[in-house]
Amino acid sequence: MSAALLKGLVALVPASTLFSGSVALFFKGKSVCSLLQLLGAGCLVVVVLTHVCEALHLFPWMHWGLEQSVGHYFDFWSAVLGLTLFPLGYLYHALTKRQAQLSCLKLRLHPYSKQDK
Predict the structure, then answer these.
(1) What tens digit of pLDDT does each residue of 49-93 get?
(2) Burial bucket for residue 104 (CB in 10 Å: 0-12, 13-18, 19+)
(3) Cα dihedral sign, 38-28-87-35
(4) Within the chain, what is the greatest distance between any pair of CA atoms?
(5) Pick from 35, 15, 36: which is nearest to 27 by CA?
(6) Which of 7, 51, 55, 75 pairs with 61 at a CA distance of 20 to 30 A?
(7) Which value, to the nearest 10 degrees, does the dihedral of the CA atoms of residues 57, 16, 79, 66 take?
(8) What angle do CA 45, 46, 48 make, to 5 degrees?
């Protein structure tokens, strides 16, 4: 087993964990933030799988590892999208969740609003 294959298989564990968590979040409540996280995690899994394919010499017509090749751009843009979409989805989820908690907290602090009077 080559070192590149071992690195790819080791990286597959956290990437697939991230992807499965994103799938669970998406099916729990379908929202824009969970969709962004799912797409980003999927792109990160694609990045890891491209490295596994490169180590196993699968799909040689993609010329893995060479600049200006299909494999290079596939790997590069998957990484860019994954590292952009997942954090955006997470940030959006965290901000909307915090905003919902703050509005709930305001209702608890002020149970009698002007609407009740």
Answers:
(1) 998 988 888 888 888 777 888 888 888 999 999 999 999 999 988
(2) exposed
(3) positive
(4) 74
(5) 35
(6) 7
(7) -10
(8) 65
Do 74 and 62 meet the contact criterion of CB atoms below 8 Å apart?
Answer: yes
Per domain, the residue ranges of the chain are 3-109
3-state SS, residue 113: coil
Question: Do residues 51 and 7 touch, judged by C-beta distance below 8 A?
Answer: yes
Written as one string, the DSSP assignment of 11-64 is: HHHHHHHHHHHHHHHHHHS--HHHHHHHHHHHHHHHHHHHHHHHHHT--GGG-T
pTM for this predicted structure: 0.79
70 DSSP 8-state letter: H
Q: Report the distance separating Cα 46 and Cα 81, nearest Å.
A: 11
